[in-house]
Amino acid sequence: MPVVSVNPSELIRFSKTDEKELLSVLPKLGVDMGHKDNEKWELEIFPDRCDMLSPEGIGRAVKSFLNIEKGLPEYTVVPSEIVTEVELSVQDVRPFIVTALIKNVELTEEFLKSLMDIQEKLHLTLGRNRRKVAIGIHDFADIEPPFTYKAVKPDELSFVPLQKTHEMTLEDILEKHEKGKDYAHILKGKARYPVILDSKDNVLSFPPIINGILTQVTPQTNTLFIDMTGTDESALFNTLNILCSMLADRGADIYSTKVSYGGREKIFPDMSPNKIELDLEEARSLLGIPLDGPKASDALERMGYSVQNISGDKAILLYPAYRHDILHPWDIMEDLAIGLDYQQFLGTMPCKVTIGKGLQKKELEGALAELLVGYGYNEVMNYPLSNPDREYHDMGLEPDEDYAVLENPVSEEQCCLRTWLLPSLLINLKNNRNKPLPQKFFEIGDVVVNGEQYTKTAGVACHSEASFTEMKSMMEGLMKAMGIRYVIEPKKHNSFITGRCASLLIGEDEFGFFGEVHPQAISNFEFEHPCSAFEIDLKHIG
C-alpha cells in the first residue's frame, strides 16, 4: 500500500480534532500507522483511496467521519481564458492533456515538500509510474498563454531542465539527465517527443520526463499552472481533481482552463459531483444489518456523500469528483459499512457446522502445480484482461471474432478477456528480460473462449537451448506423472516454428499443445532468447 509521510501537527490542523481522537479514527478509515514520532507519521493508505494521499485528503475524510464537516464538499471553479492547443503530432505519443490554474497559493517549504510528495504518489498509483499520467506543476509568473502541446523531433529544440544549469536537447535529456534515464523507456521507439510551449516558445515541460527550470516552483510562487499528460483521459481527469481539491483545501482558488483539440474544446477541471443510485434492500442483505433511510443517510454523509432523495429502497446519491474509486454501487456499500463503523457490527455464530473439503478440480490444479515446480518452473498469476494485439497480432494469429470485449475498458491495454495463457507468460518474460537465464514460468488460470470459461495451464521456458525436444520430454514426464493416456501428433500453429509444434490428444480430442515459439513472436515481446512453451486445457484431464 502507498505510504504517506505527514507532519502530525499539519494533520491535526486539517482534521480539526486532537491527536487522541485522530488516532482512534484513522484505523476505522482503513489508514494503518507505521513509524510514529513527534515530527513525522508514516501512514499506509488503501490503494483505491488516492484522494487520501495527502494530509489535506486525510483531514477531509476525518472531519466528515467525525461529523465536523460532513456531507459533500463543495468546490468553486472560476472560468479563465487560458487555452492549450493540442496538435495532432502527439496522438501517437501521449494523446491527452488536462490543465488547471490555481491562484492564491500560500507555499511554504513544508507545503512544497508535501506537494512534491503527493505528485510522486499520484505518479506511482493512478499514473502507473508516469506511463498513464505525468504531472507538471509550474510557476505561472514567467510564462504567457496560450500554450501548445505538440510532439517534436528529439534534436529539434533545447531548454534548461530542472536540476541543470545548461540547455539540453530532448535526446540529451533522455541519455544524460537523471530523470531522463529513469523514464526514457516510456518514450522508447517514438520518432517524436511531446513538449508543452507557451506563446513565446518557452518550454514548460517535456512530459513525462521533466519540467523546464523557467517554471520552477518556489516558496515565493503564488499562482500555479498544472498540466497532466498521458494515455488515459479518465485517469488524467481523476488525478487533476484530486490535486485541485487538495490545493483548494489549503485555501487556494481553482480556475478552469480550456484544452482545444483542433477546435473541439474541453474544460478542466470539472469538480461537479457524480450521481449514483443505491439499493438499500441489497445493502441490508449484503451487510447483514437492519438499515432504514435516515440511518443510511447519516452514515453516507459521514463518508462525504450527499443524499439527494430516498424513495422506498432506492437512494440517489452524489459523490465528490475526486472519488475515482467509485465504480459500482457495491463501492458505496463498503463506504456505508465504514460510515456505520465496523466495530458496531455484531458477530453471530454460524447456524450450521460443516467440515470443508477440497474440490476435485483444485486438487488436480494443486498436483499439477507441484509437478511443474518440481520441473523448475515458477508459478505466476496474471490479469485475466488483455488486448487483441497481444492475444493475436503479436502471436502471429488472426483475431477471433468471438473474443469477449469490455464495454467500458479502463485502458487499451486491458480491453478484452484473454483467450489463452501463453501471451501473458511472454509478457512475464519481457518484464524479466534483464534477469539471468534460464527463466521458467507457469500459470494455472481462467480464459474465456466463445463465451465459455475454461481453466488452463501453460508454461514457458526461456534459455539458450530451449527447444521442441526439451518441451516434448517434459510433457511426456508430466503426462506419465498425471496418469494420462495420450497421443502426440504434429500441429501447425502460427505462434510456433513450423515443424516444431505438436498436439496432445486423448482419443480424437485435443487437450493441449506444445512446441518452440516462433522468433517473430519472441521479437514482438521484446526479448531475444529462444523459448519453448505448452498450454493444456484442464477440462479434458480432470
In short:
With 542 residues, the chain is α+β, with helices and mostly antiparallel strands. Helices cover 28% and strands 29% of the residues.
Explain what you see.
The chain has 542 residues and is an alpha+beta fold. The protein contains 15 helices and 27 strands. The protein starts with a strand and ends in a 5-residue tail after the last strand. Helix 1 (8-15) crosses helix 3 (55-65) and helix 9 (293-302) crosses helix 10. Helix content is 28%, strand content 29%. The longest helix is centred in the middle third of the chain and has 17 residues, at 233-249. The strands form six sheets. Strands 4, 5, 6, 7, 10, 11, 12, 13, 14 and 15 form a ten-stranded mixed sheet that branches. It folds into four domains: 3-65, Phenylalanyl-tRNA Synthetase, Chain B, domain 1 (2-Layer Sandwich); 77-268, Phenylalanyl-trna Synthetase, Chain B, domain 3 (Phenylalanyl-tRNA Synthetase, Chain B, domain 3); 274-342, Phenylalanyl-tRNA Synthetase, Chain B, domain 1, CATH 3.30.56; 360-540, 2-Layer Sandwich (BirA Bifunctional Protein, domain 2).
